[in-house]
Amino acid sequence: MDADEYRRMAAVEQTHWWYRSTRALLRQMIVNQLRQVTQSAPRRLLDAGCGTGAAGAWMSEFGSVIALDTEAVALHLYRLAHPDARMIHGDISSIDLPDDYVDVALCVTVLYHAEVVDPQKAVNEMARVVTPGGVVCLMEPGVRRLRRSHDQVTHAARRFSRRELETLAASAGLDIVRSTGAYSFLVLPAWLKSRVERNTTSSDLDNNTSGLFGLLGLLARFERRILRVVSLPFGLSVVVVARKKF
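Above: the chain sequence. Below: its structure as tokens.
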């Protein structure tokens, strides 16, 4: 991913509506599962492909966070904002941790990058380092055929359907606990935006930090209420929560 995009992430991670909504969504998806994990002393939680910590550093409330990324600039920015995390400069497809080491592995918008040559190998690695009974949570861009200008900035190579993300987890030997679309209300606007921006390159983080003056955040909050009851068949993002067999 472009180095400037990491700097944009670090600058807006506390204020941008998408990051705030995504942290709330991940908390909703993970915390109940985390409470079912046998607690180590302390819990160890892997932020895999961590970027600047905008999506995963919140897990420090529940234990010791290990931040893994291939980009030194991302880890530097992560350390500045979240100095208590343990940093690992390394590849998500070859994680420098022992087997059965962490209670949770969280991976947010990483597998879709061109730099991840084999997403299955990366998920296999997350499954390897998670303890029996531990949780792997994957969140990736959905709508497979959608291509946006933001994808150029983030070096996107692929998007995922729910079934494809489920298959990655199941093929790694994990049991699917939850699978759903998210940000379903953004699918049509994103498609329309992709038509307008065709053959251009721009970052979503350069504008609309407030989310249309709070409207998008309100829609995301309403969607999270729905997700407490049912799963959605599709979304601009897809989320899979899976558990490692005992």
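The two ends are 36 Å apart (CA to CA).
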